[in-house]
């Protein structure tokens, strides 16, 4: 019940962000898409780190400076970081393709089952992602308890898939103006999110939560 309540809260929070044009390990390393022409910048904080990838025309350090330097890890830090960066992003670079990853530092907490409570470990955000036919936006092979995935389609059509225990389940299509929600939970294993672009031009915002 606690997990269902948490998923419901996440859905409401993310839908609110989407409505305002904001989205906010085992033997196999996690894999995630960021775009080949993006420059990656990392900033360490007390108990968490932030990775930001953006075109060279974007001042990544300026966006990272929107995060208070004295911020310390808590379960609220994920939303606070995303909101801080997103406010400045919308003001300065509303159309730029920008990636933001916020990750807790340290080891994964103890193995848990569906009935246990879960804590956020990583939040992967992709703003203004553009791909052609069969291009992808994804984050997968996170050895976690739960993955929750959201997409908002700005243009074209996308086909969503969610990973559970290394295998992929097809969720289906979402079209221009639509929002797709997917999740995978249960015992600890490989979790992930993936969307295929299914039009010649596809654009969207994506946010992916990974819990342990």
What does this 3D model show about the protein?
By secondary structure, this protein is α+β, with helices and mostly antiparallel strands. Helices cover 18% and strands 45% of the residues. It has 3 helices and 12 strands. It has a 7-stranded antiparallel β-sheet. Strands 1-6-11-8-9 form a 5-stranded antiparallel β-sheet, with no helix packed on it. Mean pLDDT is 87; it is low at 15-27.
Low-pLDDT parts are: 15-27
Structural class of the helix and strand makeup?
alpha+beta
Cα separation of the termini: 16 Å
Widest sheet: strand ordering: 2-3-4-5-12-7-10
Order of helices and strands: HEEEHHEEEEEEEEE
What Rg, in angstroms, do the CA atoms define? 16 Å
Beta-strand content: 35-45%
The total of helices stands at 3
Helix content: 10-25%
- Main beta sheet strand tally, sense and closure: 7 strands, antiparallel
Number of strands: 12
User: Mean of residue pLDDT?
Assistant: 87
Shape: globular
Features:
12 strands; 212 residues; alpha+beta; 3 helices; five-stranded antiparallel beta sheet; globular; single chain
Task: Provide a short characterization of the protein structure.
The chain is an alpha+beta fold. It contains three helices and twelve strands.
Chart the SSEs and their pairings.
Elements: H1 2-19, E1 31-32, E2 39-44, E3 48-54, H2 60-64, H3 77-92, E4 98-104, E5 120-131, E6 136-144, E7 146-155, E8 157-164, E9 167-175, E10 179-184, E11 189-197, E12 202-211
Antiparallel strand pairs: 1-6, 2-3, 3-4, 4-5, 5-12, 6-11, 7-10, 7-12, 8-9, 8-11
């Amino acid at each position: 019940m606690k997990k269902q309540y948490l998923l419901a809260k996440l859905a409401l929070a993310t839908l609110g962000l989407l409505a305002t044009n904001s989205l906010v390990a085992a033997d196999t390393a996690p894999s995630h898409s960021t775009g080949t022409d993006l420059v990656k910048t990392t900033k360490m904080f007390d108990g968490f780190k932030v990775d930001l990838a953006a075109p060279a025309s974007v001042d990544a350090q300026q966006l990272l400076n929107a995060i208070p330097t004295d911020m310390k890890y808590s379960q609220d830090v994920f939303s606070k970081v995303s909101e801080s960066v997103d406010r400045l992003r919308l003001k300065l670079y509303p159309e730029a393709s920008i990636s933001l990853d916020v990750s807790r530092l340290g080891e994964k907490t103890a193995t848990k089952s569906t009935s246990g409570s879960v804590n956020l470990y990583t939040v992967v955000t992709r703003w203004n992602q553009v791909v052609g036919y069969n291009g992808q936006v994804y984050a997968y092979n996170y050895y976690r308890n739960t993955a929750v995935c959201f997409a908002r389609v700005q243009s074209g059509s996308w086909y969503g898939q969610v990973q559970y225990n290394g295998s992929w389940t097809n969720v289906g299509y979402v079209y221009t103006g639509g929002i797709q929600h997917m999740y995978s939970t249960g015992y600890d294993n490989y979790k992930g999110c993936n969307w295929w672009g299914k039009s010649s031009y596809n654009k969207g915002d994506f946010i992916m939560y990974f819990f342990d």
